[in-house]
Specification:
mainly alpha; about 0% strand; Lipoprotein
Length: about 250
């Protein structure tokens, strides 16, 4: 009997120790998630859920905090905006965040039998997390080019900077490709898609007013003809008007 009790107590101790040492699925106790957290979280969200298991979403009170934390811009801003940190260090962290964001884009791609996104709001929040991140990521990269060049105004340095800006604009254009999936979004999703255009494309143009936005303007014209949502069309028109207003300022009178 004593031996039986010892076995039971041993098993109970093992269970208790196992429960105590098991890591939480998401580090919700942390104020900010760093790149290591994003590596673990994106891996969990991409591969740790069964096909019939619901992902964290804004509609679910029990998991809302997870997706809010996942798409919280402060997670990268707390490092990238800290000028007390070295430029190369911040640029390296930005590169890591960008890499993990690309993995994040696979999380909420699921659609139903009618081709509707199951998580359209979450998908767009992830997208917009990346748009905000890229504005800082590419600027840090260009600042690093200037700091590392003997002559920041040299042809080589300027070509590298302009290449980065062109890549950034091309990446933003990919966000607009979601308009081709307009019918896959709910009305809330369409509104959020339009808000993203207003917010982040305005920042892009104001940050690089001298950039070549010809391809963006052409894309806006094509999408405006195809798009049915008035909110999205209005957002596209506002961005084109902003580009044209900046171009007029730069044109000699």
């Amino acid at each position: 009997m004593d031996r039986f009790k010892i076995v039971i107590l041993t098993l109970l101790c093992l269970i208790i120790v196992s429960c105590k040492t098991e890591e939480p699925r998401f580090p919700m106790q942390k104020r900010y998630w760093d790149t290591n957290d994003y590596k673990k979280v994106t891996l969990e969200l991409n591969f740790g859920y069964d096909d019939d298991e619901k992902l964290p979403s804004f509609k679910d009170p029990e998991t809302r905090a997870i997706v809010e934390k996942l798409t919280d811009h402060q997670n990268y801003e707390v490092v990238l905006d800290d000028e007390q940190l070295g430029l190369k260090h911040r640029n390296g962290v930005a590169t890591e965040f960008f890499r993990h964001w690309r993995d994040m884009q696979d999380i909420y791609q699921a659609r139903d039998l009618q081709d509707k996104y199951l998580y359209d709001v979450e998908l767009l929040r992830v997208w917009q997390f990346g748009l905000g991140l890229q504005l800082k990521y590419f600027k840090l990269g260009n600042d690093n080019i200037k700091a590392s060049s003997d002559d920041p105004n040299s042809v080589r340095a300027q070509n590298n900077i302009n290449t980065n800006i062109s890549t950034l604009i091309s990446n933003f254009n990919i966000y607009l490709d979601e308009i081709n999936n307009e019918n896959s979004f709910s009305e809330e999703g369409k509104e959020l898609l339009a808000e993203g255009i207003n917010k982040y494309f305005t920042r892009l143009i104001e940050l690089y007013p001298d950039a070549n936005f010809n391809l963006l303007e052409r894309k806006i014209d094509l999408l405006n003809k195809k798009c049915e949502s008035e909110k999205i069309k209005n957002s596209l028109s506002k961005i084109k008007s902003l580009i044209q207003s900046i171009s007029k300022k730069d044109t000699p009178s």
